[in-house]
Amino acid sequence: MDKLGITKDDLTLRSGFFAGEASSDSMLRTLKEKLGVQQVYDTYGSSEITVAGGTCDYMNGIHFPDDLVYPEVINPTTKRQVPMGEKGELVVTTMLKEGMPLIRFRMGDITAMHDEPCPCGRTAVRLERIQGRVDDMVTIRGGNVFPTQIEIACYKCDFLNGFYHITVTRENALDVLTVDCELTPECANNTDKFDEYKAILIDHIKAICGVRAEINLRQPQSMPRSDELKAKKLTDLRKIFDNK
Ligand SMILES: [Zn+2]
Predict the structure, then answer these.
(1) 64-106 per-position pLDDT tens digit
(2) Which residue segments constitute the domains of the chain, with CATH numbers given?
(3) How far does residue 44's CA lie from ligand 1's centre (Å)?
(4) What percent of the chain lies above the pLDDT cut of 90?
(5) Residue 43 CA to ligand 1 centre (angstroms)
(6) Which of these, 11, 61, 102, 243, has the minimum number of CB atoms within 10 Å of its CB?
(7) SS3 assignment, position 205
(8) Distance 103 CA to ligand 1 centre (A)
């Protein structure tokens, strides 16, 4: 929209219904403001299970259709179920599919399940916003980091447009986390403020992940856009270094 000069007043959208990637509150807030919609909904589903769940007006987690697909949350290491409300990997069993039934299929997504009633009246269990993929999680200097955490930090910075990419390398036996992120067109030429921008993002990342990051500020639209539905947000180069 920014590139084409389209403003939210040119659109007549009322609500936004989002799917495909993990979201954060700040990402949904930005989409709501930029698209000028009154309500945003988040969905969760996959091609393997064919059905999807979604948030209601209370944004109280994703109501998951547990009468069609039976969900469980497990500890990905022990593969045992975790108690209601505790984070783990989502595992599903399809109840109605005949062609390709799935039994305790590991979705690879990190979430937690809740069964307290929702004010909207729906009785299905609710899934917390997906925290990330089990295989996207990287361990940096002993701490676990998800790309979604970096995304939350980027969205806290009004000088960034939300596009980012994470690279993990190893220098002198130390893990190095580098975040490349695009500036907004309004802030792209404030070169005198770049050090300040970097320091703000470093602080947000440190507060959320407990890790200090190196920051590369990039010009708007300069980072490659993925043609695929899901953009690759993280490159871990440590294995290549380790094999040298
Ligand atoms: Zn509800």
Answers:
(1) 999 999 999 998 878 899 999 998 899 999 999 899 899 999 9
(2) 8-131 (3.40.50.12780), 137-243 (3.30.300.30)
(3) 14
(4) 54
(5) 13
(6) 243
(7) helix
(8) 27
User: Considering the entire predicted model, what is its pTM?
Assistant: 0.66
Estimate the crossing angle of helix 25-35 against helix 147-155, to 10 degrees.
Answer: 50
**Centroid of ligand 1 to alpha carbon of 61 (angstroms):** 8
More confident: 242 or 49: 49
* Confidence (pLDDT) at 113: 96
Ligand 1 centroid to 62 CA: how many Å? 8
Q: Which of 49, 44, 46, 47 is nearest to 97 (CA)?
A: 49
CA–centroid distance, residue 125 to ligand 1 (Å): 10
Calculate the alpha carbon distances from 26 to 31, 85, 161 in Å: 9, 23, 12
Ligand 1 centroid, distance to 128 Cα (angstroms): 12
For residue 64, report the distance from its CA to the centre of ligand 1, in Å: 10
pLDDT-wise least confident of 55-59, 132-136, 233-237: 132-136
Tell me: pLDDT of 123 over 70: yes
- Which residues, other chains included, contact 4 with Cβ-Cβ below 8 Å and sequence gap of 6+? none
